[in-house]
Amino acid sequence: MEALVGGVACEGRRGGGKRKNVKYLSNGPKRKSSYGLRAGSKGFLVTCDKGQERSTMKEAINLLDEFYERLVEGANATINMESNDSRENEFEGEKTSQVGSLSNIMQNCKHTKTGVANDHIKNIDDALELELAQLRDKRKARFIGLDTGCAGIVFVEMLRDDNVRPLELVKSIIRTVVTSKQSRTRFCLRLLPVEVTCYASQSEVKRAAEPVISHYFSQENGDDGLKFAVVYEARANTSLDRMEIINAVAQLVPKHHSVDLKNPDITIIVQIVKTTCAIGIAHEFKEMAKYNLKQIVLQKAES
After folding, report:
1. How far, in Å, CA of 267 to CA of 248, rounded?
2. Least C-beta-crowded within 10 Å: which of 88, 100, 125, 260?
3. What is the DSSP letter of 192?
4. Partners of 153 in the beta sheet?
5. Torsion sign across C-alpha atoms 35, 40, 44, 45
6. Under a CB-based contact definition with an 8 Å cutoff, are residues 36 and 128 in contact?
7. pLDDT at 4 over 50
8. If we measure between CA atoms, which residue out of 285, 226, 291 comes closest to residue 255?
């Protein structure tokens, strides 16, 4: 009998007897999960419709990259209201242009002597590599998309640290959405700023949240107190007690600040995704439709 193993027939037991079932083995290793959300990251949780995670990740990175450039690097160009893919097309155009100009030089080398032509081609190859390396340096990644392992939500990690907090970027995007009355997105729904991620346990959440709260809430009793609320959401995790986490975070806020669930000045966002907790800060969270870009547009249109 012969059995197919990896698409190749191989000899089985010799002689007669009952025929065994033919088994087919995979031609390669199984794909590992691309789950990548981990502790110690800052960035953005982005919600979307189920099945649109990859498109959402790409769209969110392009949007954040544009506003990061405008906010940090002071770009003066008007906001591009066209497709978010334009940034990639621009890079490809630059690359094609550089390759094209070097190709012209290579064509000219054909009219020279063979030995000289070979020297020119070698130099041109080096120049081409240098040009492409310089283009890649210009486009060093500021953001990277991470799979959360949950349908309908992705994480975009902020790689560079230029003293810019995720909240600043989100507020800049929301201001533009409000002014233009356009969500600027097709797939992205909620854009939640995340100051830090940690393992989803009460002790780790308290440890990670403490420096975040210290930054946004004054520690001096003489200062005017702020009103705050803690918003908790959990996905694919039922092991944590909602109120225990909320109370643990709220107790970190200095006492001269007060809880106000209806009209807070600051909202502390606690998002549990499987075994990871994402902690963020938001301003005007309820007024801005819980940072749902499409809902902000609808909300402003009705008002």
Report:
1. 15
2. 100
3. E
4. 47
5. positive
6. no
7. no
8. 226
Count of all residues that appear for the chain in the document:
303
Q: What is the pTM of this model?
A: 0.69
Nearest to 285 by CA among 154, 171, 169, 156: 171
Q: Partners of 9 in the beta sheet?
A: 4
State the burial class of residue 169 (Cβ atoms within 10 Å of its Cβ: 0-12, 13-18, 19+).
Answer: buried
Phi first, then psi, for residue 86 (nearest 5°) are -60, -35
User: Shortest CA distance to 166 belongs to which of 273, 77, 46?
Assistant: 46
Token pair recorded at residue 186: 């097709």
Which residue type, as a one-letter code, is found at position 220? E
Residue 108 is encoded by which pair of tokens? 């000219």
Band (206; pLDDT cuts 50, 70, 90): very high
Alpha helix (H) residue ranges in the chain: 53-72, 86-109, 114-138, 166-180, 202-216, 242-250, 293-302
d(CA 128, CA 100): 10
Checking DSSP bridges between strand 153-158 and strand 227-235, what pairing results, if any? unpaired
